[in-house]
Design goal:
327 residues, alpha+beta, Beta-Lactamase, Alpha-Beta Plaits, 41% helix, elongated
């Protein structure tokens, strides 16, 4: 894997931003990652292996075998030391290493003694976590073993990059329709589990076909790119923006009820209305929005989408460039 520019080990905020771009933290287990840690155990003849991601205050495992944990405090993580370098970190006997001799994972179960970890380095030079193997007996790791694990680290990052590419729209970098609908399902599950509210907004760019017809599709593409950037800047960090097709977009707002969501979307609508494109013939654009709060009566995700779509239809009927809420 090519790293563009130097390794950035001193930019912690940049590292966290790079990690969160993959949107993998707290995601469901995936067979492909689980297969890798199982394979590592066979190759290295150990019973513990993990794909570890280092968040702000915790180590979270995308895949793990041999250890009954989904995460640990960052202060206990061997892998937090691994991400400080471009090269693998090897510990032959943790009880003799001052950094780890008092570590609870060494003193208590599982009783880690040996460790080998390789950093997961993103294409822009951030170490977001590591892939590692652990054993309960002292062991010295060879240069060849370090190279093998480093190769697996590259495979994991490539897998994360490919997964991200599939989840994003190529033109606007919004979430793809399939990824966005997955977020809707997650929100629906959360609503049923503990009542957490969520509101969906659907919006269309008004008269977008006339922009393409008059100025051409390349100009239309620029309009969509700038419009989505402005939309993101008007949303909260937790809100999710998806491109559902053509000039149709969706916004999922978590932990917010309809009244507050309306204020957020009005802010988005006004930001779009203020847009100017002086280098594209002075184009001005507006958008129409339909909102629907997630209700327990929305048995299917399609019901929720239909409710928001019906409200969007009302916005178009009412002259466009406005926000309408589902009844």
């Amino acid at each position: 894997m090519i790293i563009y520019g130097p390794l950035k080990t001193q930019d912690e905020q940049g590292r966290l931003d790079a990690l969160r771009r993959y949107e993998v933290l707290d995601s469901d287990p995936e067979e492909s990652f689980n297969d890798v840690v199982k394979l590592l155990c066979r190759i290295f003849d150990v019973r513990m292996a993990a794909i570890s991601l280092i968040d702000e205050n915790r180590q979270w495992f995308k895949a793990i075998i041999g250890l009954d944990a989904t995460e640990t405090p960052r202060t206990d993580a061997f892998c937090d030391h691994t991400i400080g370098s471009a090269e693998p970190m090897a510990i032959s006997d943790a009880t003799r290493d001052s950094r780890f001799a008092e570590n609870p994972l060494v003193l208590n179960a599982p009783g880690i003694r040996c460790y080998l970890g390789a950093p997961l380095t993103t294409p822009d030079g951030y170490n977001i976590g590591s892939i590692c193997i652990m054993g309960t007996e002292p062991r010295t790791f060879s240069a060849s073993e370090r190279d093998i694990l480093k190769g697996f680290a590259g495979i994991i990052v490539t897998q994360l990059e490919l997964s991200q590419a599939v989840r994003r729209d190529g033109l606007t970098s919004c979430f793809s329709r399939s990824a966005f609908e997955g977020f809707l399902r997650d929100a629906s599950n959360a609503k049923r589990a503990d009542g957490r509210p969520a509101t969906l907004a659907l919006f269309d760019v008004d008269h977008f076909k006339s922009i393409n017809d008059r100025f051409g599709h390349p100009v239309g593409d620029v309009v969509l790119q700038v419009l989505t950037e402005v939309t993101r800047s008007a949303l909260r960090r937790s809100d999710q923006l998806g491109r559902l097709g053509g000039e149709e977009f969706g916004i999922l707002m978590h932990n917010v009820e309809l009244a507050e969501a309306t204020l957020i979307i009005e802010r988005v609508r006004e930001a779009i209305e203020r847009l100017r494109f002086p280098h594209q013939g002075g184009i001005r654009v507006t958008a129409s929005f339909g909102l629907a709060e997630l209700g327990l009566h929305h048995v299917k995700i399609s019901d929720w989408i239909t409710a928001a779509d019906n409200a969007l239809y009302l916005a178009k009927q009412d002259g466009r460039n406005c926000v309408k809420r589902a009844a």
